């Protein structure tokens, strides 16, 4: 009996020793992406050849994200960090890089200006990211370029499909005010932008009153807010005072449920905008 018990203990210890490296493995990735916009592109054109993790959750403001210890550990054990050009001087990013203390880390800054939800900007970002991946992984450079070309064609086709939906309801005749962070996309969509506004915490009472007066005088139909800017209380109040409809859209895939790709995210944004426009026309004529 004692022999059987001893054998069982030895077996358990051996099993624990084998499993220990797995349970204590350090989080890592081939690529850490500064946003879900970058993640979506890398996943598509790398197609499984590179493991990628997203740093900033898609529903959050990139500048207000508090870096977690797990982020530091992941970056410390990863090969590449790919970020937007507007992220390179953010304190949370520079602090993360310093804390990770990874001397072998390759940092790629994607210098693409404009709103990445707009198709032409998205297409430019795909090209720049494909170039970056080719420099990192030269053996698969041609593959990444080929995948990027395919994705670009799909983006432009999707953009035309979406634009046709917007043209059908004559959005060019619809006056709006919108969050600064959404101006690029809203302009691409074809709406007539009367004015833009900043983050809620940056707005003064006088500034809001001025916006409301300007919007009323212009006959604004929609107040378009940015999901990642946080609370929508201010934009909702403005819409009520103006006699408009408030709608919130996202700048990142995954901001809303079931929108993990750019294609799904742009469809969701347009659905929300058209629903709001329909509501305005039914309510205000």
Kindly describe this structure.
The strands form two sheets. The protein has a four-stranded parallel beta sheet with strand order 2-1-3-4, with helices on one face. It is globular. Helix 2 (36-46) links the parallel strand 1 (31-33) and strand 2 (52-54). The N and C termini lie far apart (88 Å). Residues 1-25 have low confidence and may be disordered. 53% of the residues lie in helices and 13% in strands. The chain is of the alpha/beta class.
In short:
Helices cover 53% and strands 13% of the residues. With 285 residues, the chain is of the alpha/beta class.
- Mean pLDDT level: 91
Fourth CATH level, the homologous superfamily of the largest domain = Nitrogenase molybdenum iron protein domain
Task: Label the CATH architecture of the largest domain.
Answer: 3-Layer(aba) Sandwich
DSSP, total strands? 8
Distance between the termini: 88 Å
Tell me the number of structural domains: 2
Which series of helices and strands comes N to C? HEHEHEHEHHEHEHEHEH
Radius of gyration: 24 Å
Low-confidence stretches: 1-25
Strand order of the largest sheet: 2-1-3-4
The share of residues in helices is 40-55%
* Approximate shape: globular
How much of the sequence lies in strands comes to 5-15%
Give the quaternary arrangement of the chains: single chain
CATH-derived topology of the largest domain: Rossmann fold
Largest sheet: 4 strands, parallel
Which structural class fits the helix and strand makeup?
Answer: alpha/beta
CATH class of the largest domain: Alpha Beta
């Amino acid at each position: 009996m004692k022999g059987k018990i001893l054998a069982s203990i030895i077996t358990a210890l051996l099993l624990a020793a084998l499993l220990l490296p797995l349970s204590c493995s350090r989080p890592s990735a081939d690529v850490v992406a500064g946003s879900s916009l970058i993640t979506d592109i890398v996943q598509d054109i790398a197609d499984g050849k590179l493991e990628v993790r997203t740093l900033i959750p898609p529903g959050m403001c990139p500048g207000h994200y508090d870096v977690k210890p797990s982020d530091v550990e992941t970056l410390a054990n990863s090969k590449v960090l790919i970020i937007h050009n507007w992220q390179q001087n953010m304190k949370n990013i520079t602090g993360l890089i310093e804390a990770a203390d990874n001397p072998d880390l390759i940092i790629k800054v994607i210098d693409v200006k404009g709103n990445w939800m707009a198709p032409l900007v998205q297409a430019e970002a795909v090209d720049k990211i494909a170039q970056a991946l080719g420099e990192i992984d030269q053996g698969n450079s041609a593959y990444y370029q080929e995948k990027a070309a395919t994705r670009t064609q799909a983006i432009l086709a999707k953009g035309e499909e979406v634009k046709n939906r917007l043209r059908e309801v004559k959005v060019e005749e619809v006056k709006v005010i919108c969050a600064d962070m959404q101006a690029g996309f809203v302009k691409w969509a074809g709406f007539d932008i009367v004015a833009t506004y900043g983050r809620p915490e940056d707005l003064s009472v006088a500034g809001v009153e001025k916006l409301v007066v300007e919007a009323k005088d212009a006959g604004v139909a929609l107040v378009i807010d940015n999901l990642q800017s946080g609370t929508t209380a201010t934009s909702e109040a403005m819409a009520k005072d103006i006699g408009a409809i408030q709608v919130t859209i996202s700048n990142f895939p995954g901001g809303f449920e079931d929108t993990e790709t750019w294609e799904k995210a742009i469809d969701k944004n347009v659905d929300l905008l058209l629903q709001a426009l329909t509501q305005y026309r039914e309510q205000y004529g």
